[in-house]
Amino acid sequence: MNKNIFEKIISYAIQSASTDNMQFFKVTPSKDYSSCTLEIPQKEEGFIDHHYRSSQISCGCFLENLQLASKKFDINVKIVLDSSSNPLAIAKIDFSKSTQKISEKENLLFNMIEKRNCNREAYKKEKIPEVFLKKLEKTDDKNINIKITLKEDTKYSKLVDSLFACEKVRFYLKEGHKEFYDTIRYSTQEVEEKKDGLDYRLLGLPPVVAKLSMKLLSNWKVASGIVKIGGITLLSKTSSYDLLHKSQGIIVCTLKKNSKKELVGLGRKFQNIWLEITSQNGSLQPFAPLPFFHYMISNGAKNKFFEEQQQIILSEYEKVEKLLDIAKDQEIGLIFRFGIPKKLKYKSIRKDIKQIINY
């Protein structure tokens, strides 16, 4: 395969979902571009990226796009997931010329890659057909289950209450606060220069309001002061509670193990669902605190939370398990709301592939 085709494939692959759009991908090609490796760049775990969990899921999203893009360019792909204990090593990918054309379904999803976007605004009353949504719950991966709860379901309000309780916890965490606000890009110039992170124009608020309020809240003393006077409930209510109620439904993805292989598989399924939803003019917005904070507390990082916060997370997680009848051998991996949004004026920018490819 020539360099030009290889770079085109990678340019589509990096348009996948990644934690706060940080795009922690490192691709190293062979000299003849017949293969490459996918890794997470050397970095600290980060607060919510405990054991590189969210980065490994993001790499699964990358691989799903990569496979679709390869088929579009008549390239066959063999993905071999790394089996070592190194959390940063993800996969080796071999490319070869394919004699089989991309299917109609795959071509549809490929065309959704550039249209997919995270929409943090209230979704419209228009709905994605339930028949279509039912198909999304089916998966070939025996380790992954998909549960969709629609707004009309009697369980919906209780599910929202649990997610909202965990969303409020994130506002009390200094380390988590810093990590989140460090990913926000507060000007058009910063967006275009860094080509990663959260564009202030895509935070679900009028751009001027988003820019000023987020800049103010990025100061921990200001944010913690608002917490002390009870303003946190209002902040989180307008940013999460209302949005969850202004959605068509919530999707919960569960998995059997938390190994690298299963997390990458979860990422692939997540990306596939997002492209499918996009094909129906829909959008998604992930809600990370409940599954990721629970994982942290259960896997050696409970010292990052006060005792009261631990109890809130564990209690709400258990409520969701019972509410959705999640099997005992399954663990919640991802949660996101979905619906049909208004058309966005902007789209999350992506890094130049030269920042991703290690030539």
What's a quick, concise take on this entry?
The protein contains 13 helices and 10 strands. With 359 residues, it is of the alpha+beta class.
Can you put this structure into words, describing what you see?
- Helix 7 (188-194) links the parallel strand 6 (184-185) and strand 7 (198-199).
- This protein has 13 helices and 10 strands.
- It is 44% helix and 16% strand.
- Helix 2 crosses helix 11.
- It is globular.
- The mean pLDDT is 92.
- The chain has a 4-stranded antiparallel sheet with strand order 1-2-4-3, covered by helices on one side.
- With 359 residues, it is α+β, with helices and mostly antiparallel strands.
- The chain starts with a helix and ends in a 20-residue tail after the last strand.
Q: Please, how many helices?
A: 13
The string of secondary-structure elements, in order, is: HEEHEEHHEHHEHEHHHEHEHHE
The largest sheet is: 4 strands, antiparallel
Mean pLDDT across the residues is: 92
Computed Rg: 20 Å
Rough shape? Answer: globular
Biggest sheet strand line-up: 1-2-4-3
Number of strands: 10
- Strand residue percentage: 15-25%
Ranges where pLDDT stays below 50 over 5 or more residues in a row are none
**What is the share of helical residues?**
40-55%
Q: What structural class results from the helix and strand content?
A: alpha+beta
Please give the alpha-carbon distance between the first and last residues: 15 Å
